Amino acid sequence: MLVIDPPSSVHRWRRGDGFSLHQQLRQVDERLWSFRPFALPGRDRPGLALASDPIIAGQIEWAARQVLPARRALVTFSPARGWLTGVRRDLVVYWRRDAAAQPHYVPSVRLAKSRHRRLLRQADLVTAVSPQLVEEARHTNPRAFLVPNGADVEHFRDPVTRPDLMTRRSPVIGYLGAVSWRVDVGLLEAVARARPDWTIVLVGQPSVDIARLPNLLSVGGQPYNELPGWAQAFDVGLVPYTNASFNRASFPLKVFDYLASGVPVVASPLPALAGLDPCVRLADGASGFTAAIEAMLHDGPSPEACRELAERNSWDARAALLEHLVEDRLHARTSGAPVQTPFSTHDE
């Protein structure tokens, strides 16, 4: 497998640095390579994107020839990169992780929408992490299938030392992730006020205002290798998202981070999280969240049950599903048979 990292701007490579494509091609293990191409500055803006496209595609094709077998499937998740004309492929998978062309995340909504529409039309397969994204894709491409996000089980499962800040607090209700416009901070503040005996911990970089309350702690962003210690200190993990359309189409990775840590979850009613009970309870509003947290604290699933659910939804399981879809599609193109999912998600 070859993973393409986000391109670096060409101005970073100064004359005399001895830059070569070989320096950017790195072997991670016996089956995995990574490659970081370079591109023109401003490559995600309409005019410069057209100029950078062949530069990026040519480098990716070079790297692919070095390490991949003759048969290739190109999996792309970023509409900003577009179709990547010039990269040879036997099959294209458009992996939809979020709603496309969001002003919060792309410099040019118009460019992202245009490239998103082309990927939907021309991809051999479209996979999406939520039912809403699948339904939206099938209006354009009937070969769209649900492949939810997976669990990084090994990273979060094994016991680690908890942060000193968490050693004398109980119960701890926690949130992992950026505290951004997506998070219903008002809901968290209301829960904190309603239950002053709970400690609510936000582990992530805040970009919105958070009230100063004695039992509402914001500890900022933490290194990924330290997140298991924080998550394992939680008694309940939270996904307190607002009712924005972007959120309704999402599948928060933090859900499986909590579960792999042995921690039950209370989340906003996101369609992608249906079917994960009893380890995940969906709730709405401050009173609903408070009641659901209470229920998890007093009669929630065991840590073992949470970990087992995470293991059934590991990234290995997702890779097996994607591999089956790819093989099925390649066979269907020669036989005319329809592509079908081999098993259900979440509880396979």
List keywords for this structure.
348 residues, alpha/beta, 6-stranded parallel sheet, 12 helices, 36% helix
Can you walk me through this structure?
With 348 residues, the chain is of the alpha/beta class. Helix content is 36%, strand content 15%. It has twelve helices and 15 strands. It has helices at 21-24, 46-67, 109-122, 131-138, 153-157, 185-194, 227-232, 245-248, 254-260, 285-299, 303-312, 315-335, and strands at residues 2-4, 8-9, 25-27, 33-35, 38-39, 73-76, 91-96, 125-128, 144-146, 172-176, 199-203, 216-218, 236-239, 265-267, 280-282. The strands form four sheets. It has a six-stranded parallel sheet, sandwiched between helices. Helix 6 crosses helix 10 and helix 9 packs across helix 11. It is globular. The model has no long low-confidence stretch (mean pLDDT 89).
